[in-house]
């Protein structure tokens, strides 16, 4: 089936998708994924009424929109996904789709994840015997877990809840000895911040009693190192070849580019930003907390004490290029904007995910695809060629182009390597002179 029309699961390879208008694209998605008219409308813009926004945050004056694109070609664990991405940066959606297309021909992305376990931290001060306090808390593990689980019975019924504790001692801190009790909580399909913060507050009095100290902070950790998502891709070098560069040259270039990010934090920051270029747009489109994801990713990248690459690129014994990515991914399907924002709901419907773990794994695959796109370009022609071609469309619009003029003006700007608004205006004037407007 070429476009998967009305199949149970959408086929993510859609011929000619980029050449359609936004309205045609959304109709096409409707046909392929079974997304109903109401959800199609939600993804088309203006989904968030001001009244709803007013209930979400404070001092609301309006809403703020971003372009919403759909990355195509993704196959993850043998299943196709159409991936919604809300992002302002040109070339991100195109790059992800392009790399997913190459990956698709090589078996697609393979992903896995841990159970959705979040950490809540309870800080205890004014301790005379921090090590004694630590052991008393460990001895009271079962009681602490029981108290933590008294509040959220629904979570426990769903198979989640507090699973374990850890107690970390900081003998020397600027305010004297301190211990930090961690609650390790399986939050199932929630992002989990509210759940674990509530639990931490619930157990705090008991922690104070047992430790004989004073509890201060009771809050989740965004270093969600027990809630990891992983993605892997294996690419035959022939699949990587372009007209200008051999697959061997590209594979070697990607491995060398990654090596710089592994050894040098200055490069790692940019390398990881490229990964987040893929992940954040999905997080935003599904109404999740992108600051939490960013905080977790960068803290994880620095977990050894030296900030480094989140991904790895290497060659296997057959010469295939193997890319892997592993990072914390605290995303939810229930609660917060995920539930209240109508476009986020429609985006999740388009994705067709049934668990937060599935969403987390798609995010990891998207990050890896984006990373591969950036490294491929950087290791060969440089990033600006492709970027400028797409940036030219923005410049054409700023200069006043509309409809078919946009692509025509953009193509000429890019061909002349002169992507400026005043040049775009000149081209537009020429087109008008030709009667093309
Ligand atoms: C630009 O938004 C992202 C890149 O800088 C990522 C990278 O350098 O790997 C292209």
UniProtKB/TrEMBL annotation:
Q: Give the EC number(s) listed in the UniProt record.
A: 1.1.1.88
Show the GO MF annotations: hydroxymethylglutaryl-CoA reductase (NADH) activity; hydroxymethylglutaryl-CoA reductase (NADPH) activity
Q: Which UniProt keywords apply?
A: NAD, Oxidoreductase
Q: Which residues form the signal peptide?
A: none
Tell me one GO biological process term.
coenzyme A metabolic process
The source's domain of life comes to Bacteria
What CDD domains does the entry give?
HMG-CoA_reductase_classII
Please name the top-level EC class of this enzyme: oxidoreductase
Q: Known catalysed reaction(s)?
A: (R)-mevalonate + 2 NAD(+) + CoA = (3S)-3-hydroxy-3-methylglutaryl-CoA + 2 NADH + 2 H(+)
Instruction: Name the pathway.
Output: Metabolic intermediate metabolism; (R)-mevalonate degradation; (S)-3-hydroxy-3-methylglutaryl-CoA from (R)-mevalonate: step 1/1
Which family, according to the similarity comment? Answer: Belongs to the HMG-CoA reductase family.
Protein's recorded name: 3-hydroxy-3-methylglutaryl coenzyme A reductase
Native organism is Flavimaribacter sediminis
